[in-house]
Amino acid sequence: MNEDAKRQVIEELRDDANYYGELGKRYLSNSDIKTLVSEPDLYGQPIEGINLVKGGYMHLRILEPHLIGNYEIVDCPTRRNKEYTDFVNDRAVEGEPKPIFLLRKEANELEALATKVESNDEFVDALQSDIEPNEIEEPMIGEIEGYWFKGKADRINRRRGFIADLKTTRSLSLFKKNIEAYGYHSQAYIYEKLFGLPVRFYVIDKETGRLGVYDMSEYRMEQAEKYVKWGLEKLEMYYGADGQENLEQYYEYMVL
Predict the structure, then answer these.
(1) pLDDT tens-digit profile of 109-131?
(2) Which of 217, 213, 187 is nearest to 124 (CA)?
């Protein structure tokens, strides 16, 4: 792909409808690698759930707060009542999974976390201060190990020379302990390859409001490279020329 074609793709991927739609599906993502490594039989299936919705709201609230007024929130106490069901049905698209919407109480909880973030100078400087054009939710594509990947940076902080990636977690301890299980080390590796800048994670503990900032060590990045290569090997194994037969024989095994 020449540079003009690459710039055109990047421009189109700035629209989330393209990034997560048919155009974006031509490129591998970190989520794809994580699925291929841990659950290869689920590769290509959409990932949904309330935690993704909450994460999306928090990203919008912190990174693009001027857009938060457009976010639809349901003023009802539970998703099991008629008011919520009617709200969803009015916005559902035939043939697509029904969307999940935030409840007002959930949005209020996230707002409290956002206020905590905005009271911390380091988080504000990394995520919100001195933003230049094309630094927020900026996409990139590139070739890694012979495969084309995509990524979308939360904040390219060119002034400080890193990508600031915002995460929420149930516990900072779990985040640190399960960095590889979450696939965040491979995200850091892929994004550094695509953007040419290291990734620094800015993490919010949803339960306590505690904040953490984490860089990847050289050892962790070496493990991430192996992890990405392992995912690509599984892509060929299960979705290559002889993949269908291999996939039919796949099962998960573990000693519990």
Answers:
(1) 999 999 999 999 999 999 999 88
(2) 213
Amino acid symbol at 244: Q
pLDDT digits (tens, 9 = 90+) for 167-212: 999 999 999 999 999 999 999 999 999 999 999 999 999 999 999 9
Cα separation values, 116 from 82, 109, 126, 165, 203, Å: 34, 11, 15, 17, 12
Tally of domains in the chain? 2
DSSP track, 205-245: ETTT--EEEEEPPHHHHHHHHHHHHHHHHHHHHHHSTTHHH
How far is the CA of 167 from the CAs of 65, 93, 184, in angstroms?
A: 16, 29, 10
Question: Which SS3 state, helix, strand or coil, does residue 190 take?
Answer: helix
The domain in which residue 126 lies consists of: 1-39+120-256
> Across residues 149-175, what is the average pLDDT?
95
- Model pTM score: 0.91
10 & 131 share domain: yes
Are residue 155 and residue 31 in the same domain, yes or no? yes
One domain, residues 105 and 216: no
Tokens of 193: 């390859």
* Residues 6+ away with beta carbon under 8 Å from 229: 145
- pLDDT mean across residues, the chain: 92
Does 144 share its domain with 221? yes
The Cα-based distances of 30 to 3, 68, 244, 254 in angstroms read: 23, 26, 23, 24
Please state, in angstroms and rounded to a whole number, the distance separating the CA atoms of residues 57 and 150: 22
Residues 184, 50: Cα–Cα separation, whole Å? 20
